[in-house]
Amino acid sequence: MSSTPLTLNLVEGSISFSFSPQAAQELKAALEQLVSRLKTVAAKTTPGAGKVTPQAPVEYRYTGEVFLEIFCNPNIWPTPFAAKVLLTIRDLNIRLTTEAELTRVIEDVNQYLEQVG
How far is CA 114 from CA 57, 64, 108, in A? Predict the structure, then answer.
């Protein structure tokens, strides 16, 4: 387990917690899948592109020293740049549920992975 905490910047403030490099790689893959689904929705909402096929929501869960869940329905956002994710972080003593900007979460995970090598 890495001693480097993952810091996620929220719309107002930030939160840091213990996170493993392997879990960060899995989260990065889930975020890439979400961006792909958002791009699919955005491409099909252009005029003349035909009927939009709904994309499945993306849900990521991690259980370690804290429980982390990230959820996003790609069908409600016009572009990946506008998208927000629902973020839940909890342990035995506290639970935080808030929205975070998808692009910021992606940047935070990439920065964490650069730090841990």
Answer: 28, 21, 10
What is the secondary structure of 37-94 as a DSSP string?
HHHHHHHHTSTTS-PPPPPPPEEEEEESSSEEEEEE-GGG-SSTTT-EEEEEEE-SS-
Q: How far is Cα 19 from Cα 83, in angstroms, rounded to an integer?
A: 24
Rounded mean pLDDT for each run of 10 residues along the chain, 117 residues in total? 81 93 96 95 68 87 95 94 96 95 98 94
| Global confidence as pTM | 0.89
DSSP state string for 86-100? EEEEE-SS-EEEEEE
